Amino acid sequence: MTRLITHARLIDPEAGTETLGAVLVRNGVIAEVFDHPDPQIGTDTVPQDARRDAGGKCLAPGIVDIGVKICEPGERHKESYGSAGQAAAAGGVTTIVTRPDTTPAIDTPETLEFVRRRANEAAPVHVLPMAALTKGRDGHEMTEIGFLMDAGAVAFTDCDRVVQNTKVLSRAMTYARALGALVVGHPQEPNLSAGAATTSGKFASLRGLPAVSPMAERMGLDREIALVEMTGARYHADQITTTRALPALARAKRNGFDVTAGVSMHHLTLNEFDVADYRTFFKVKPPLRSEDDRQAVVEAVKTGLIDVIGSFHTPQDEESKRLPFEEAASGAVGLETMLPVLMRLYHSSDLDLPTLFRALSLNPAKRLGLDCGRLAKGAPADLVLFDPDKPVILDRFKLMSKSKNTPFDGARLQGKVLETFVSGTSVYRST
Amino acid sequence: MRFDQRHLLGIEPLRPDEITTLLDLSDQYADRNRKRSPSTDVLAGMTQINMFFENSTRTQASFELAGKRLGADVMNMAMQASSVKKGETLIDTALTLNAMRPDLLVVRHPHAGAVDLLSQKVNCAVLNAGDGKHEHPTQALLDALTIRREKGRLHRLSIAICGDIAHSRVARSNILLLGKMENRVRLIGPPTLMPSGIEEFGVEVFDDMREGLKDVDVVMMLRLQKERMDGGFIPSEREYYHRYGLDSEKLGHAKEDAIVMHPGPMNRGVEIDGTLADDINRSVIQEQVEMGVAVRMATMDLLAQNLRERRTQHPEGVLV
Fold first, then answer.
1. Torsions phi, psi for A130 (to 5 deg)
2. Which of A251, A350, A240, A252 is nearest to A306 (CA)?
3. Aspartate/ornithine carbamoyltransferase carbamoyl-P binding domain location, by residue (chain B) (predicted)?
4. What distances in angstroms separate CA A342 from CA A293, A336, A381, B58, one per listed residue?
5. What is the complex's ipTM, to 2 decimals?
6. What is the pLDDT at residue B229?
7. CATH 2.30.40.10: which residues of chain A?
8. DSSP character for A288?
9. Is B265 annotated as a binding residue?
């Protein structure tokens, strides 16, 4: 099975370049990258119907999205592997890395097995599961990290439930180190952030909402970096969203610790004032930050201090969002909206496309030891073809996800996914 | 002078001239309420439902009396004991009530923004009787009316708000209203009871009470809730009274004719000295209660006028 995409603007995050060229795909891998937009290849090698003229649009390695919540098992009415897979394909996400914060939590090899089977049946994109770090995400006893790795877990995390007992966390990280397992933390000081719905400051005070100081993130990160120093574990902070946490991250990297960090699409594009009159679709975890913080984390993505951008796709049904702000559930869907939303940063000249795809595809793949995320000969043909300029008005009811909780409903965006390929096969093509 | 609001959800959306309109009408009702037969029929045929998701005696009674004096049919719903306990969501409760076609809905709720959310789902006029730590607009209006009647004006005054600012919706509404009317607002309290970012509201913040009270025209005390007293936010009741309780010595730093206010219910000997609270030369606490009825009458009168107008324009009764 071969495929040739010609006249494409090739986004190469490894080289940091954009060039006009073409890509030949054979047997699910990139067989050749041409620096000529229309290489002379006979129809005997690639038949006419396996060619696509990209018309100068962008071709980039498919997105690897770390931290996607799919509500199986437990809340399939919110999202299933089928619906999430469709949403991912429509958003140019070719690898979903799922969270274990389901009901029940994915904390045994048996539940992981169930999840993998469901995922492979239903989703058109790659699905790689993360597993819980402690049983039931309760923070008391570590899970069977070895068995879970054998069953295919790519990382271990208790998601937004911070392991409060430092002794438990230090033991889990020590054990994980021996197996080379990646531990994903959620940097927050849990007592300070308990019950908070916003970031403390003028906005929270004006609205009378319970708030957490941005310093809670730095405290959480400081503790976890100290544990990395103590245990030697491989560590990834799921979301760094505040200015105050960045120096601690930079110091850890400078000292040579195996530490990386991510940030959500929402914290890169929205700030606390977007909540406005208690709009619960803007309630995410951690809460949206100040505009200064937003700009600082955009800059950190640019310099590479923050390695990974994720959607932190969190489906919630209407009932759990149509409540007073304090009581409403946190999270937003993002698989399908991430690429067009992040184009805001490209159009504002904050981030160029190779930098964006370094954080969306290359770095997350490298962190998980995957071969994808590159636009190079021999890499898996997980690709996204998109138009970065096409104007769209987002309609949440047209999203593929079962849940429609996006803060970008009605937003005017520029950027549209034209086609998504997983292992060389087209899994989505826009009409 | 106009009043263009559909609901009264807070002080924040009000223009200064709307506040003046409200206070002018309240003044008339206040005078009228002192007459032998204060009742009118401006709300005759209208239904007012009081929905209190949080305990209240004073505010609910004040709203009930205001509605009755205006000739409305008033119904009180004890939301603590109702279907809310059975798991019904706020929106379902709102839709159920809306189907009963009330004209005025008075709502108190423990969560900030809940009254706002409810107002989006009903056809009638909604009055916020306090939502979480957000706003309590009629309290700020009755405070403003009391000040205006006592001081003869509601601008260029120096007003100190003292106590638990962080947890107080009364403080937020007052800061907004007094700021809109161009007064100098000072906030006094221990830093643990001060909300973050409050300096950006155009107020001065003091943690020393004597310094904060210097030469003010009005002293507004706030209630310190029992559950905040022991160790959590302040070390103890007696230390709080020593540093932030209003007594005649501390009041001596304010202007000689400064008035003392309290939204009630008071903790005598915690935030205010009992004798001072009863001093008819300084304390206007009873007047505040009296003005409460007048302000609520005026608010409901104006909202009902707007409601009638909207219904004439949209006879189908659609959500507008």
1. -95, 155
2. A240
3. 6-148
4. 17, 11, 23, 52
5. 0.88
6. 66
7. 2-59+381-390+412-429
8. P
9. yes
Per-residue pLDDT reduced to its tens digit, A28-40: 999 999 999 999 9
Q: Given phi > 0 = left and psi -120 to 50 = alpha, else beta, which region is A240?
A: beta
Secondary structure letter of residue B236 according to DSSP = -
The beta strand positions in A311-398, using DSSP E, are 383-393
pTM of the complete model beyond 0.90:
yes
d(CA A345, CA A341): 8
Encoded tokens for A81: 């592997």
C-alpha–C-alpha distance, residues A93 and A123, integer Å: 12
CATH of domain A62-367: 3.20.20.140
Beta strands in chain B (DSSP E): 47-52, 73-78, 104-109, 125-131, 158-162, 184-188, 204-206, 218-221, 259-261
- The string of DSSP letters for A135-188 reads GGG-SSSB--HHHHHHTT---B--TTS----HHHHHHHHHHHHHHTPEEEE---
B86 belongs to an annotated ligand binding site: yes
Q: How confident is the model at residue B315 (pLDDT cuts 50, 70, 90)?
A: confident
Q: Which tokens go with A308?
A: 């990974």
Which residue of B lies nearest to A214 if distances are taken between CA atoms? Answer: B196
Which pLDDT does position B320 carry in this prediction?
45
CA distance A159 to chain B (A): 27
pLDDT band at B231 (very low <50, low <70, confident <90, very high): low
- CB-based contacts of B126: which residues, under 8 Å, 6+ apart? B7, B8, B9, B104, B105, B106, B107, B115, B118, B119
Q: Which CATH superfamily is domain B137-285 in?
A: Aspartate/ornithine carbamoyltransferase (3.40.50.1370)
- pLDDT at position A24 is 97
**A-proximal residues of B, 162-191, CB under 8 Å:** 169, 172
Chain B residue numbers touching A200 (CB-CB < 8 A): 196-197
How many Cβ atoms are within 10 Å of B297's Cβ, its own excluded?
29
| CATH class label, B7-136+289-313 | alpha beta
Contact B310, B6 (CB under 8 A): yes
CATH architecture of A2-59+381-390+412-429: Roll (2.30)
What is the residue extent of each domain of chain B? Answer: 7-136+289-313, 137-285
Note if the bond before B265 is cis, omega within 30 degrees: yes
Domain with CATH 3.20.20.140 in chain A: 62-367
The one-letter amino acid at A123? A
| Closest residue in chain B to residue A207, using alpha carbons only | B134
State whether residue B292 is helix, strand or coil. helix
Torsion angle, alpha carbons of A378, A380, A382, A385, to 10: 10
If you count them, how many residues does chain A have? Answer: 431
